[in-house]
User: Fold this.
Amino acid sequence: MNTSRLGTRTDAGDPGSARVPGGTPGATTPPSTRTGQRAAGSGRRPRWTEDRVVPYLLVLPAVLIVVLLRIVPLVMGANFSFTGDGDANGAWVGLDNYRTLWDDEVFRTAMKNVGLLLLALPVAVAIPGLLATFLFLKVPGYRLYRSVYFFPVVLSPVIIGAIFNVVLSFDGPANQLLEKVGIEPIDWLGDSTYAMFTVIGVHIWATFGMALVIFMAGFATVDQSLLDAARSDGANLRQTVWHVIIPELSQTIQFVFVTTMIGMLTGMFGLLYIMTGGGPGGATYLPELYIWTQQGQMNRPALASAASMVLFVLMLVVGFAQLRLLKRATKES
Amino acid sequence: MGTRGLSRWVIAIPMALLAIATIYPLLFTLNVSQKTRREYVLDRFGLSNTFGLDNFVDAWQTSGLGTYALNSTIVTLGSVALLLVFGSMAGFAFSQLHFRGSKAAFLLILGALLVPFQVVMVPFFRVLGQIGLLDTYPGLVLAYTAQFLPFTVFLMTSYYSRIPGEIIEAARIDGASTFGIYLRLMLPLGRPALVSVGILNALFCWNDVLISLLTMQSADHRTLMVGVTALRGQYSDNIPLFAGGVVMAALPVLVVYLFFQKQITDGVTAGSTKG
Amino acid sequence: MPAALSNGTRSRRFSTRLAAVAIAPLVLTLAACGAASDDGGGSEGGGESGKLVVWDWKSGDPTAKAYVDAAKADFEKKHPDVEVEFVAQPFDNYYTLLGTAIESGSGPDVVLFNGGAQLRDRVDALVPLDDYLGDNEERLAGWEAFQDADQTYAVPITLQGEPFYYNKKIYEEAGLDPEAPPTTYDELTDVCEAIAKIDKDCFSLGNKEGIGMEFHLSTFGPGVFTPEQYDAWLAGDRDWSSPEVKQLFEMWVQQNEDGWFNDGVNSTAMFMDEFTKFQGGESGNVVGLISDVAHWKSFDEFLGDDLGVYPGPIVNEGGQSLMPAEGGIGYGVTEWTADKELAYDLVDSLSSTDALTAFYADAGAIASDTTIDTSDSGIPVVADIVSWLPESKPNLHTVLSADTLDLLHRLSQQLIDGKVTVDDALAQLAASDK
Amino acid sequence: MTAVTYEKAQRLYPGSTTPAVDALDLEIRDGEFMVLVGPSGCGKSTSLRMLAGLEEVTSGSIRIGDRDVTHLPPKDRDIAMVFQNYALYPHMTVAENMAFALKMAGVGKEERAARVKEAAALLDLDAYLDRKPKALSGGQRQRVAMGRAIVRQPQVFCMDEPLSNLDAKLRVSTRTQIAALQQRLGITTVYVTHDQVEAMTMGDRVAVLKDGVLQQVDTPLALYDKPANLFVAGFIGSPAMNLIEGELREGHAVVGGHEIPVDRAAAAAATGPVTLGVRPEAFRVVGEGQDGLPVKVTLVEELGADAYVYGTSGVEGTPSNVVVRVPGQVGHQKGSTIRVTTDPTAVHLFDNATGRRLNP
Assistant:
């Protein structure tokens, strides 16, 4: 048998060389000592081995933080929502706070506006989807647009809100532009018919770059040969988009839907707070803003907690429903 | 595909208009920041005829934006460091290691994405107060970490799940411990994602107003974005000063964006496609 | 064999790292606690620690510097070892922040409050000050706004009132006598018609926050109500179905329909846009304040000699022409503060004559201190305003609860928006104001 | 002693009822090159990964030498593994990749460098030591993966289809290189492949697996000559052995009315219907008039020296495919019918019910 040229194994005297025919599993050699011990201990798989413990240690900080600063507060809040405000501070009031919410027209409006957000969701997804398609088709200047479109995403919502406050004021630049093309000025933020749509619009303006970039990444993964095949089959653009690109992008579309929804339901507070403060006439309240005002301005923390619980349950329901719907939809296509 | 020639240009026109609409508000703000308060009151929307840094200097000096910027930097760096360490640790475990309860823990963290900050706001501050962290840098760092960790864990998990498991098996056979694999393989291999996610988180922390406002109660702990919004109090009508503050607060963000555009967009997309 | 030898070191190294991972969060937390004891002292505050924390939304203002310095100096004379920290919070979020502090039972020792509902809603967190007041009770005015159930919870430092300011230049352009502002509602109507002809707004109005209606109620109220009705309202006997109340609300709607206001009332912010418009010469009149902001001092900066002022016009027979005024802002002591007396001493310094004189001079606040001489301001309208103060009565809107005020804000916008009728609005208010 | 022993080793995935590897008994001798072969899903990779410590062993045990490694973590087993996708560390240079295990084992810097250098020389990688894997060709990457295993001087090499990502030509040359290298190093090797040609050319012995069950372990030639059952018979050999169902009658097998001579002893062992197995090269073409199995030619594959004739024989009404090796350039026509026969010694006989070999 050939001996290796490599390393220590070639040493004829090395008892660790396993290739010595008939070599006794010498209890005298270091490696065998090791192996002997191991062998004895390994009849049964030990419970706490390194590779079993470390995964838990790795996730521990993250889980700890989320539990301590999200889950615990959530439970505390749930508990708190059954106690009273003001004179009844700390006293158990059962479902009173929830009844108050139910009777509060402002809260009902806030919930209705959540519905409006869900209706606007497809638009908020379609716009960046469409733009990404155009960029994918390399319309002139697409490189520039790609950079520019993402730009609002990096700005703070509070700053965006403050800027749009001025831009959308009644005598502001937006209406001046309308006037120039002969359209009656609109009280973007002061007319309850438009205000919620305006804020949603600004939110879409501020975030579509995010979804756009995600779509672009999705497009990059579309198999070029599928597009070629579609073209050789004589499919037009619409057919190609419908039958090739959309099914190929189902995972991306799902992701955009979910992130956009989370963004809409949790990320509009800054804009609302600055742009309308819930007005006019309470028309632009969302649950987050309601919680904020009840907690602060109205000094009713227990009621705010109850509203928080409603919002949380709503998020759960919407989140799960959406995942299910999308799963079914993408399976069908 | 079937769009060429004229139709591409037809599409390009609204695209270009949209591009203008995207940057217009900032140009508008820049214009306002060039005016004096008097000029603004007398003519709010016209082009400024003067150019100067007065409002910037004022915002920086009298309004203490300098201190606030330092605070923001400290808190942002601290938060991003924690987010990246904890996020990559958890991401590695969730994507590559198999352990009992892994799915439940992942769902728990992911579920936190669905909890808006306002929902836990009040009790959150109780907890923070009880551990004595209200109005401290570590308190705000922890608050940010809690806020952005679910997102970070999610992105790191999906990035790491693209790394073939064989590499980790190879390292195991080569004698690396699980933690050694994290240090020697996952951290260096995760670098692109860590850079992207780090920059994104830095933007989030830098831009936050709400959490910082509530956590940092004393004036000398305030962060930049809060300082800027404070310039636009209900009782202040010095819009040009506010505009100056806005431009200055947005400036570092813009610089970061211009330099790290690719990394930022890569980070955003890390979770969207499965390799 | 190297592999064999290394095995031990390997596992040792592993356990070290294991420990590192496990300990890291702990260390961070400990580090955090360490830092907390350094900086967090303010929150737990208290006299023993030698530090008092004041929350307000004014001290960051350059015009308030002299005031804060004077108050600090006064306090230091009394307590040289106690440090005072002023924290200027953004006004937008002031009461939310305060709410969070109250929630967690820790926070500032001394807090600035607006008089009225904001204070009354939070008296649980404040120390009754009646036992400490002494001769301040005589020297200062405007206490009612800071009292609840006959107990005083804050010491007023300014008086707040709402006069009508007008732009003499625009009156002139409109062919009106710049030295004869309207005294009755009919005259005001004529003024508005004249100003409309020169394509200006009669009034600048910002009702984005819904507070335009508060001002409307309190400034036109005296001209609509009889003095008896006025006092009854303040005393809590409010009849929302009375013809006078309905009249007030209909005036609000009518003024808007008649084009008295600028466009986009509901999207115009009061303190940022409404007064900017008036200062910029876009309107003939505005309902302004006498302290803090949107007052004679800031208007004077832009309008100078063109600035005029008049008290609310008489609307009905039996109505009165007066400028409503009461305590504006004041300092209270939180109930968790360690040494209440010490904290009150600071409040005392904050309302000292020296400090308030500086506040009046620099910030243009009409101070609560009746001993301050206001004759040398150089701004003519001040004399008028001060001369009306003795006849002033508290605002009609500040006696309303926070809930009712919030409803009023929303209804005022809906009235402008045409989303609710006056009758419906009044019914809702009546139900809320119990 | 670095023999490897599987003793009733079983892997049952949670939630599954049939084991992926079922009570595997296998002994791999010291220094032996053992190939595990079988179709995909047969459990060959799982068996290897159980040895490497990457899969848990549900029951039974695995020993390396005299050590019971059944429940040891991979790093304590003193094995090296070459993966199908090489699993090189993308952020490390070739040298760092190869030295990684040594570094983990606490081997000193100088010795690491020396050993890497030595292995690199052996694999012709000297010029690439500073490159990252991305900058290497497929063949080079494969060699780095080998190098990484060699540097460690392990007791056992585990190789999981290490050639399947190479192009056909490179695969053939690398095949011999690996075999030669293994012989030179003399390290016990367990090699997994789905390619029976690879198995036959490389292995000292070959273990054939199917559905998690070991079918036969033997030298390549023995597998070829004496397949233990129908599965091995069909799996080993290219083109595959002709398997034709037939009836036994007085020492002959009758297929579609044609007699084929079979081994007497085998025939005696039969209890029911049988399948005849004849290697393509064991068929002889006979002339017109002589008795033989008629085969209708559908395709002739000319290889020069030899040719394979593919055809169908009408047996029991259903045509079954037959391959016959004939000398090259004889020129059988597509569509023509040839008659073939064979020697009794060349006929493998399998029991239809059990699939087991009946020949001694």
